[in-house]
Amino acid sequence: MDFTELNRKREYYLANRHLIPSDILNKYENAFRIEYTHNSTAIEGNTLSLIETKLIIEDKISVGGKNMRELHEVENHDKAFEYVKECVGENKTLDENTVKDIHEILMQNIFPGGIYRNVSVRITGAAFQPPPPDEMYFQIKNFYADMLYKKKAMHPVEFAAWTHAEFVKIHPFKDGNGRTARMIMNYRLLSDGWLPVSVNKDDRLNYYNALESYAVLNNIEPFVKLIADLENKELVQMIEIIRQIIKQ
């Protein structure tokens, strides 16, 4: 895949983002934070609406008529994303302990997180099924080792997409693998100076199909394109803000 145009947009954004007033930037980042939490939890079956997600995250208002797990999922997702941004700000390496910490935050008040599964799991409707526990332990260790050379061999957006796709393929936790994978993908993007992305819940079929293409056929291209398109969308929005500011 040719990343020339995407690189150009990123360079423009990085060179001019200092022009964006802090209040406008904060508003944009807060809107993304809410939409990202809503989409990521909804993909996994959470029924809270975007407005209800906003009430919980931004306004700290409890929502009635929902089970506690759904409320915790939203609260935890927001906390995990803040943790990711803190780690990136501190130039902390994305290693096994950090990934386990992210999963533990995502699972707070739901079940003990940060612990690899010791049972086999199945993904309903998927052609690919995750490896049994013994094989999973072997694959997850290779995953962290592979990240060292994949980073050098891949474009940062491609590397972020691979990190997500490979992690979900291994499925190391009993639950919460998708949310964790999307978190560590954004960890990669942010740490390399790119914008975080959010997979829209209404596009979950394309998202699942692209992931299955990698898991079954070892074809990463559809998923890389999906993530690159999302990155392009975020960059275009930021560039439009910058151009409006320059025009004024």
Can you walk through the features of this model?
This protein has ten helices and no strands. With 248 residues, the chain is an all-alpha fold. Helix 1 runs parallel beside helix 10 (221-247) and helix 5 crosses helix 8 (177-191). The N and C termini lie far apart (36 Å). 35% of the residues are buried.
Topology:
Elements: H1 4-16, H2 22-43, H3 50-57, H4 68-89, H5 96-106, H6 133-153, H7 156-170, H8 177-191, H9 204-217, H10 221-247
Shape: globular
**Largest beta-sheet characterization:** none
The number of domains: 1
The total count of helices amounts to: 10
Indicate the CATH topology: Fic-like fold
Q: Mean of the pLDDT scores?
A: 95
| CATH class wording | Mainly Alpha
Distance between the termini: 36 Å
Secondary structure: helix percent: 55-70%
CATH architecture: Orthogonal Bundle
Beta-strand share of residues: under 5%
* Rg computed from alpha carbons, rounded to a whole number of angstroms: 18 Å
Task: Encode the helix/strand succession as letters.
Answer: HHHHHHHHHH
| Count of distinct strands | 0
**How would you name the CATH homologous superfamily?**
Fido-like domain
